[in-house]
Amino acid sequence: MVGCTNCPSDTAAASNAVDPVFRRILWIALVANAAMFLVEIVASQIGDSISLQADALDFFGDAANYAISLFVLGMALHLRARASLIKGATMALFGLWVISNAIHRALIGSAPEASVMGSVAILALAVNVAVALLLYRYRTGDSNMRSIWLCSRNDAIGNIAVMVAAAGVFATSSRWPDLIVAAIISSLSLSAAYHVVRLALGEMRAESAKTT
Predict the structure, then answer these.
(1) 20 to 30 A Cα–Cα from 74, which one of 66, 110, 122, 131?
(2) What is the CA radius of gyration of the chain?
(3) Comparing C-alpha atoms, which of 139, 23, 149, 166 is closest to residue 91?
(4) What is the Cα–Cα distance from 20 to 59, expressed in whole angstroms?
């Protein structure tokens, strides 16, 4: 069976895979996310915030995803799709871990430091918006590129949610806004994971059909 070899998504994926600008953007995103992981993991311990901890682990996962994306650039579509499956599974595991941790903290935990949450969330939002703007033009590529875009988009949304949680903690002196936002961040990860895995499986089926 002959597949579509001139589809916009296919040609965009082929050109972007060797695009030196895209490669540089991935390196910038990798360094930025790794740095923010270190900042937020320390801040989450200082501020006793589960949503900051969730966001820190999200930064770590994104840094790993960017590293995988750099590794598979220029490879065949089915190999990039397999890398996307790994990233999708990682995003899903992250979401499930945050949900379980939030449930634990709901039973045993205290109100976090709102000032720490808010200030770090503002910094994280600035970093994620900058990365998302750099990646915006690549949001309609293959599953590998879409997974990168979804990670950046979800991170920016998550940072805004952490800022809202910080305001809620400040107003109520309660840990519940922090836990609710952690649950929201995890739901974003699960939703994005489903989208990436479904698209990657479709690409693998399409490539398999071309060879039969």
Answers:
(1) 131
(2) 18
(3) 149
(4) 24
- What letter represents residue 45's amino acid? Q
Q: What is the pLDDT along the chain (212 residues), one digit of tens a residue?
A: 333 333 333 333 444 445 788 888 889 999 999 999 999 989 988 988 888 888 887 788 788 778 877 877 767 767 777 777 887 888 788 788 878 877 877 777 667 888 899 999 999 999 988 988 888 887 776 666 776 777 777 778 878 888 999 999 999 888 888 888 888 877 877 887 887 788 888 878 877 777 66
- Whether 33 and 63 have beta carbons less than 8 Å apart is answered as yes
- Rounded distance between C-alpha atoms, residue 163 and residue 156, angstroms: 11
Two tokens, residue 204: 């693998």
Q: Which residues contact 141 (CB under 8 A, 6 or more apart)?
A: 9, 12, 13, 16
Q: Are 87 and 65 in contact (CB under 8 A)?
A: yes
Domains and CATH numbers, the chain: 8-210 (1.20.1510)
Q: Give the integer Cα–Cα distance in Å for 84 and 89.
A: 8
Inter-residue contact 80 to 65 (CB < 8 Å): no
